[in-house]
Amino acid sequence: MNSIIQSLFDRKSVRVFLDTPVPEEIVNQIIDAGIQAPSAGNQQLYTILDIRDTAVKERLAVLCDNQPFIAAAPVVLVFLADCRRWLDSYRYAGLEARLPGPGDLFLSCADAIIAAQNITVAAESFGLGSCYIGDILENKEEAAALLGLDPLTFPAAMLVIGYPGESQVKRPKPPRPDRRYLVRRDRYSPLSEAELRGMFADLHPGKDFDSFIAAFCKRKYMSAFSAEMNRSAREYLAEFLGTGN
What we know:
Layout lengths: L2 H8 L13 H12 L10 E6 L2 H10 L5 H4 L2 E8 L1 H9 L9 H24 L3 E4 L7 H8 L5 E10 L3 H5 L22 H11 L5 H13 L2 H19 L3
Antiparallel strand pairs: 1-2, 2-4, 3-4
Helix pairs in contact: 2-6, 3-7
């Protein structure tokens, strides 16, 4: 493997950080690396919030399913899908532009997440650990107020970054599925029961499929935080599509 491929294989989520600040020049470099990411029409349909205020970090830790390591992370970045910037540009140019629709939102979400992934790769190259926080989608009303979100912006992703603690360095990376379970040629087809059980056996040797899946479903898919995430996502989408701005 070349060094870039190796770093992608080595990278794992980090949730315990050393109490060591990340130098400003490194923060700037990894953000600049994010900005180099592919973007639809080179529009950069996103805004990155670089969260420095300790009180905001602490509140985000509570709103994001009570995860204290968020507040402890030296670097906290929220990636907004941003459909406001270009709409305002059209209007400042004197144009009667339509309001953004679902396609615009999905495209801007892709832009934001691609930029975020560039930053995780850049962070890894400096020996930094990172973790995506999907819970940024929760608690829409308070999170939007805390971050000053516009109805045409949406928190597509959140990253916490810092130097990993020793326990995180030693912790093995969870295995990933073989490509035969994730890649289909030309047309989609769902995995059969045999394939799903085979994938599970590869990832969790010796564990019982039925009991593991039942526990995971209860803990994740049917959880209160999952229900709240879906509620908030519906509210964000309704506000986005219903805005008269």
